[in-house]
Design brief:
Rossmann fold; globular; about 230 residues; alpha/beta
Length: about 230
């Protein structure tokens, strides 16, 4: 891991950790990496590092801090899955978006950040990435296999947004996928990419559904969006 932990101040008091990985050059646009339900674990830190390697100042905030700071679970045991779903079910969505807004603006103000900031999130983070496009001043957003998006498709999308959608996502039914598509198709800010036959978390290295060709295609599309809108 090439990054370090920093402190982010919450808007309503208190503070939380963010894992910051700077690019080799020391400066560049910002990318906020939004966690899955397992916390800021090795997988998320690795993804954050990978955006730093692509030239971005990347920051992954601990969004479970209000329940328990410093959560780092894996997807390798039933006990960890149970705890992850416990945290997911106890998560305050509005506070989470507020914490992401704080993270975005903290990153925007860091020495070396160009001032442009995008977001990219996975699973729960995919839902939150969608909401950064509607409720924050993010300059671009990417949602990987976002869950429960049907609850938010009525919100106004203010930033360019990509949805990476595995067609066999066990947490998002085909009916929900169709509802999201029907609501957002024709919106010139939104691009929806289907990954035929792929399951949830197809981009999680080491995960049960990891599929390298799909993960690489999604990453290329993500980086293209960021290059266009973040510089």
């Amino acid at each position: 891991m090439s990054g370090k932990e920093i402190t982010i101040n919450a808007a309503d008091g208190g503070d939380f950790m963010g894992y910051l990985a700077p690019p080799q050059s020391g400066s560049g646009p910002g990318v906020v990496v939004i966690q899955e339900i397992f916390g800021v674990n090795d997988v998320m830190r690795g993804i954050t590092d990978s955006f730093a390697e692509a030239g971005y100042m990347a920051l992954c905030p601990d969004l479970f801090w209000r329940q328990e700071p410093g959560i780092q679970l894996t997807d390798q045991s039933e006990e960890e899955w149970a705890r992850a779903f416990e945290l997911f079910n106890g998560f305050d969505l509005d506070k989470g978006v507020q914490d992401l807004d704080s993270t975005i603006e903290t990153l925007r103000g860091l020495d070396g950040c160009s001032g442009k900031v995008g977001t990219v999130g996975f699973c729960l983070g995919g839902r939150l990435a969608f909401l950064t496009a509607t409720r924050t001043k993010a300059d671009a957003a990417v949602s990987y296999y976002g869950v429960m998006l049907t609850e938010h498709i009525g919100e106004t999308i203010n930033a360019p947004l990509i949805l990476h959608v595995p067609t066999e996502d066990e947490f998002v039914t085909p009916e929900q996928q169709a509802e999201v598509r029907a609501a957002l198709e024709g919106n010139d800010k939104v691009a929806i990419y289907d990954y035929q036959g792929q399951g949830h978390a197809f981009a999680r290295v080491g995960g049960q559904h990891y599929h390298q060709p799909s993960a690489e295609a999604a990453r290329e599309r993500t980086l293209d969006l960021f290059k266009t809108h973040l510089g």
